[in-house]
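## Example record

The block below lists the input lines for one assembly entry, exactly as stored, with component labels intact.
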Amino acid sequence: MKAVSEFSKSKRLIKDFKEREIMGPGHLACQGCGATLNMRYLLKEAGPNTVMVIPACCWTIIDGQFPFNTLGVPVMHTAFETAASAASGVRAALDRQGKEDTNVIAFAGDGGTFDIGLQALSGAAERNENIIYCCYDNEAYMNTGIQRSSATPELAWTTTTPEGHPKQGKKKDIIQILAAHGIPYAATLNAAFPEDFLKKVRTALSMKGTRFLHMISACPPGWKIDSSMSIKAMRMATESKAFPLYEVYDGVKYHITHESKGTPVKDYLKMQGRFRHLTAENVDFIQRRLDYQWEQLLHRGQLEPFNG
Amino acid sequence: MSEKEKLKNMDPNRNAHEKLSFSGISDLPDIVISTGHMTWNETGTWRYMKPRYRNLVSPCVVGCPNGQDVEAWIRLISEGRYDEALEKNMEESPIPGVCGRACFHPCEKSCNRAQFDRSVSINNLERFLSDHGTRKVPKVAAATAKSVAVVGSGPAGLACAYHLRRMGHAVTIYEAAKEPGGVLRYGIPDYRLPRDMLAEEIDVLKKMGVEIQCGVRVGTDVTWKDMERFDRVFLGTGVHVSRALGISGEDAQGVMSGLNLLKKVASGEDVELGERVLVIGGGNTAIDAARTAMRLDAKVTILYRRSREEMPAHDDEVTAAEAEGVVFQMLAAPSKVVTENNRVRALECVKVKLGQPDESGRRRPIVIEGSNFTVPCDTVVTAVGELADFSFLPDGLKVENGAIVVDDSLKTSNERYFAGGDVVEQPHTIVNALAAGKRAAIGIDCSLRGGSFEEALANITLATGPALSMRQYLAYREHKKIEEKVPVVNEICEYETLNMDYFEQSERVRKAVVGLTERMQTMPASAPNRFKEVELGLTEEQAAKAADRCFHCGRCIECDNCYIFCPDASVMPKTDEFGYAIDDYHCKGCGVCVHECPRNAMEMVRE
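Predicted structure tokens for the full assembly:
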């Protein structure tokens, strides 16, 4: 028998990627949009037996106008603040019809999650509604013209935090907020790491209760990067610890899924126009903050869950 | 039913389409539901640059003077297709087993991986495929009614005969020695290159119909006049005369040349060396002679007039010689052979120091006056370079600086004669000889068919050259175009253009060698197999690991990155053939696929 080389086994990054493609071409996203990749990977795993709930966000537009829909699954467009509550309602209606195996997925931007939809999300999480809530995080209100959100990273430029008045305060730690609700599963996902991304979606799909998936999503116009660099930017976000990849079970058990290479955050910031104004001290400050947050995460990863 | 109606009936969403048109607000249902797909929206119109698949030339391919398609056969090895890998290798060379053992592998120097961690073990992989692949006799084209004589059966002669035979010409090799192989048979010791291996590879040539006449010295046993019955003659006679030391006592009994020693041992003759052997020189012949003498129970010292760094011998060989117990006396030059009854007793030497670099780039040795010392010895082996012997050549061939003068197609001053290998001015290595054999075969074929060599060259030179592709020439001479899976741009893929995010550092695979203890035990003359091969081949696991380290620079290997990372789902793997198709109607031209291609097998082109 011939030894099968590691190469031929792993030649394709993801072996079964060719199957079950649901999201089609022709959508209205900008060139190099990270959010479309998030949707594409998510739907690939979730399959056709899915109902999407999309509040006001980029994806309201990307999906296409009536009577067209780029997603091969039913989509319910809702108001900005109601993604989680609308998804809860869809879930209840489907359960009533006996369609308990249908996935209900809310897919909201960072504005609809971190700011405007937070109360609905918190309510759903507290009730532990049987839904998957995905936040694709492009770190500002990109759809309406790059306004700051509470997901905007520290010192970044947006149209409402122009040069000279960059965003103050760190990015809101949404996973901590959701973990505090004690939901079964919360995780950070990055489309630049497809294997890890799909694995986490599979984990979420295999569970019941409120599952929260936080996806980084490069935005070439908003981040001021070339459209070809969006995967690179997302990868750098994780490798520089700005967006570490980890998952939290039941709000307590932390599990880091990708050891960041520790690339200096300078390299990540330098490639984006929205950080062009940063001074060396600014960069150093961000680096120290990220190092601290990474340490914090490591500590949480080591803590044994409470065992009453 | 019309074709159009048929298609419409086949569409599962045909009713959905009907609902897509509304004549007015009153037409809309109470709950509006989007049922149409967005594929009508041809977002391809947004783009002004378009991604394109194209392969480049991997640097190893050009790094090999013989133009081996290294990347291609490494990929076949990694897929476990050893037979096809060997076949691929033999498109360019008749002797992969020899090269996998004795080539100095310049390809590994040009390997892009060398700039990342350490180069891929190309040489070891070549040996692996010659050990594990089944040799197939290459296809021979229909007979051309032309005949060529090849004088000398070293690497240049073998390559020339092999390629000419593949083109359908009748080829006869004349070899003066008893066995074919030239320097491969008589100049490289058995522990580096086993005879069986060489015989097996020469056997392929015989099976192809190459006639090999051994023990026939052209110019003596057959005349140059006899050669006129051939349409062309290739001279690959190599260099056989050892350069003299130019000191007194050199012709005493017990002074012999390194080449002579190697040849005698290879022919199975008895050699009396005595107890202490002194080898003079720092090249590969010196090291081979020293290690051979070690295996004949002698105590061996190498005398070299420069330092270790300047030694032209390959580093691996020097290290192996040191490990086997050869003593090195650096910075010393011989001044006189001390004789007694015309028999060597000792060698008088002087110490030297190194001065300014000379024209070869190495520092020139300067004799330190009065530093004479004497080394007692029983045999002196000289290995300070080799010269060609031109006394046998036919009249009228131009010779300059100890080499036959040839043009770009390796044609000599007589248009019926071609020459290549060590006998012309080029580096004296196996792979350069192979390349010369190939070039001459192409030159001869062009001149026999009346084709232009320059035009052929323009079609078959790999990137910057001078390496040539025989695969391309065989197609070119039949006026065919090679159908590549992916279009090829004839440029080298540079290291800077690779995407290093997808590669991790890994340890270079080293092949095993026979342990020193075991080697020493088999060395005494009484041992039956004292010239046993020292280096062992790679195991299948090692080979798979070594092959996995290849970046596949500039070549699409269907890694799927372009497909996975396409935000517009517009890159589709082809189901029935190699590679991917790009949906031109929807590709927005963002360039993610091109940037995320790990090996620079894609580019953006203006439309």
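Chain B has a mean pLDDT of 87. The radius of gyration of chain B is 31 Å.
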